[in-house]
Automatic annotation (TrEMBL):
Belongs to the peptidase S33 family. Gene3D superfamilies: alpha/beta hydrolase (3.40.50.1820). The lineage of its organism: Eukaryota, Fungi, Dikarya, Ascomycota, Pezizomycotina. The active site is at D199, Y324, H374. One of its GO terms (molecular function) is epoxide hydrolase activity. Residues 17-130 form the Epoxide hydrolase N-terminal domain. Coiled coil: none annotated. One of its GO terms (biological process) is epoxide metabolic process. Keywords: Hydrolase. This is Microsomal epoxide hydrolase. PANTHER family: EPOXIDE HYDROLASE 1-RELATED, HYDROLASE, PUTATIVE (AFU_ORTHOLOGUE AFUA_3G08960)-RELATED. It holds the Pfam family EHN.
Length: 397
């Protein structure tokens, strides 16, 4: 049961409120009406190609729309989400005289020496990516034996967390402050905590380790060097595995043919946010393509639609792409005197060789896998859990 893992640590200075996902029936009805009336344009030469080189196909969109209308049940997905302990915390940032509501899913341990771990999603992901991991943790441990406090926040602008302020610029640095304060409020400042991240979440994890002593280290499954296809400054040009050589070629291809979305998000976030917030079918096309092309084995139609529907009901698309405006500034790598771990998944969009990731800090764990892509926690939860536990064992001192 969700409730058996919901005991807030006694060291918490602020107790978050329990939360249940329950989209109002009117919203659900409006969504179904919009979806039904959404038109799929006539086929083109490009949309008839089913190999993904031009994006999603006409056939895929037709079939997925039909599944969305006739088989997808949001209420069952709510039940799935609510089977985990969900919370909302009020996080105050005194320097900005602001407060934010932060949604998170958690498995709290009843062990006094449990290790706090924050896991951060990116775009077009969400807290949903980590639910298979939490399922495996619940199967392996009871609340009395769980060695960790596992905290999975929705970043500002995503899911049920507050949006960025309307009155000022808001950057990834602000997100990092909020996530740190969440961990402090939960009682983890004295003990410290570890961070894990992929995609945009990797920048949050790195930022926490850079800015706050309480963050003792981090594990990443996504890291892009400033040099992209050559070793970063200070790292010798070491021999690469065959998988890593192929990965560099994959990254170069992604930069040439797959990174246009990032430029759009970073330069015209208002346009793309308003556009995709007006049509669930348009949102499916934009996000669905990423799940298909960035995964080793594409997620099921149900999994893709669960994520897209969550984005639709919470307006996460327009609210969540603010980090892309400052993304280029985040690519520079600072070498930290903290423990880091790195998992290499070959079908990542821009896989960086393990040796190059040593630029990040004191690498206490690394693992090169022969399967898995950008959504590693969702695609390969068992491997992801094994890596996370091995990293924690090496990093927590």
């Amino acid at each position: 049961m969700a409730s058996s893992y919901n005991t807030i640590p006694p060291t918490a200075s602020k107790v978050p409120e329990p939360f249940q996902v329950a989209i109002p029936e009117q919203q659900l009805s409006e969504f179904k009406a919009l979806l039904k009336l959404s038109k799929i344009p006539a086929p083109t030469y490009e949309s008839l190609q089913e190999d993904g080189r031009y994006g999603i196909s006409h056939k895929w969109l037709m079939e997925t729309k039909k599944y969305w209308e006739e088989q997808f049940d949001w209420r069952k997905n709510e039940e799935y989400i609510n089977s985990f302990p969900n919370f909302k915390a009020t996080v105050k940032i005194p320097a900005e005289d602001e407060e934010f509501k932060v949604h998170f899913v958690a498995l709290f341990s009843q062990k006094a020496d449990a290790i706090p771990i924050a896991l951060f999603h990116g775009w077009p992901g969400s807290f949903l990516e980590f639910l298979p991991l939490l399922t495996l943790m619940k199967e392996k441990y009871t609340p009395q034996t769980l060695p960790y406090h596992l905290i999975v926040p929705s970043l500002p602008g995503y899911a049920f967390s507050s949006a960025a302020p309307l009155t000022r610029d808001f950057t990834q640095a602000d997100t990092t402050k909020i996530m740190h304060q969440l961990m402090v409020d939960l009682g983890f400042e004295t003990s410290g905590y570890l961070a894990q991240g992929g995609d945009l979440g990797s920048f949050v994890a790195r930022g926490l380790a850079e800015e706050y002593e309480a963050c003792k280290g981090f594990h990443l499954n996504f890291y892009i060097t400033p040099t992209f296809s050559s070793p970063p400054k200070g790292i010798p040009d070491t021999p690469l595995t065959e998988s890593e050589k192929v990965g560099i070629q994959r990254g170069e291809l992604w930069r040439k043919t797959g990174a246009a979305y990032s430029i759009e998000h970073g330069t015209r976030p208002s346009t793309i946010g308003l556009l995709l917030g007006a049509s669930p079918l348009a949102l499916l096309g934009w996000i669905g393509e990423k799940f298909l092309s960035w995964s080793d084995v594409p997620p099921s139609t149900e999994e893709i639609l669960r994520s897209v529907t969550l984005y639709w009901f919470t307006e996460s698309m327009g609210r969540g792409i603010y980090p892309y405006r400052s993304l280029n500034l985040l690519l520079d790598t600072k070498t930290l005197k903290k423990s880091i771990g790195y998992s290499y998944f070959p079908k990542e969009i821009c896989p960086t060789p393990v040796a190059w990731a040593r630029k990040l800090g004191d690498m206490v764990f690394h693992k090169e896998h022969d399967k898995g892509g950008h959504f590693a926690a969702l695609e390969q939860p068992q491997l992801f859990m094994e890596d996370l536990e091995a990293f924690v064992a090496a990093a927590w001192k």
